[in-house]
């Protein structure tokens, strides 16, 4: 009987440790951030888009208007138990270019520099309006008459 109670205690202790281990916060890092030494090698007025890509890699995002900048983004996310994941740190390196594609400026931003901006997708509207899928699929059924099918 002594062995059985020792086994039960060991199993209970193992279960408690597993439950406590599941309640610890998990941290994940997303994205890519070039090292500070690599960023210091970029010379404004000299380096181009191609030389920046060769030096520190392809950016996570680039400027929408006139392809005016490269953006390297790294985020640290904390997940804890049942709670929603929370961004606890975000760093953005913005490298801007002039019209000729030469580096104009290199700037680093973090969460302390402003608000957290939620990135979302932009949806382009089509010219179809509010026509649903089924209506598009069966839209031509009424446009065909029997005389067109028989052929004279």
From TrEMBL:
Annotated protein name in UniProt: SmpA / OmlA family protein
TM segment ranges: none
InterPro entries: BamE-like, BamE_dom
PROSITE patterns according to UniProt: PROKAR_LIPOPROTEIN
Keyword Membrane in annotation: yes
GO cellular component, one term: outer membrane
Secretion signal, residue range per the UniProt entry: none
A Pfam family this chain is assigned to: BamE
Organism: Maliponia aquimaris
């Amino acid at each position: 009987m002594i062995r059985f109670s020792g086994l039960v205690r060991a199993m209970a202790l193992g279960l408690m440790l597993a439950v406590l281990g599941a309640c610890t916060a998990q941290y994940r890092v997303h994205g890519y951030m070039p090292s500070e030494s690599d960023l210091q090698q970029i010379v404004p007025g000299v380096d181009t888009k191609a030389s920046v890509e060769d030096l520190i890699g392809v950016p996570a995002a680039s400027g929408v208007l006139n392809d005016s900048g490269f953006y390297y983004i790294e985020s640290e996310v904390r997940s804890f138990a049942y709670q929603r994941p929370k961004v606890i740190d975000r760093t953005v390196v913005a490298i801007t270019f002039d019209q000729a594609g030469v580096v104009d400026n290199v700037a680093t931003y973090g969460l302390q520099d402003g608000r957290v901006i939620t990135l979302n997708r932009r949806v382009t509207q089509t010219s179809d309006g509010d026509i649903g899928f089924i209506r598009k699929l069966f839209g031509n059924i009424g446009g065909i008459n029997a005389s067109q099918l028989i052929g004279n």
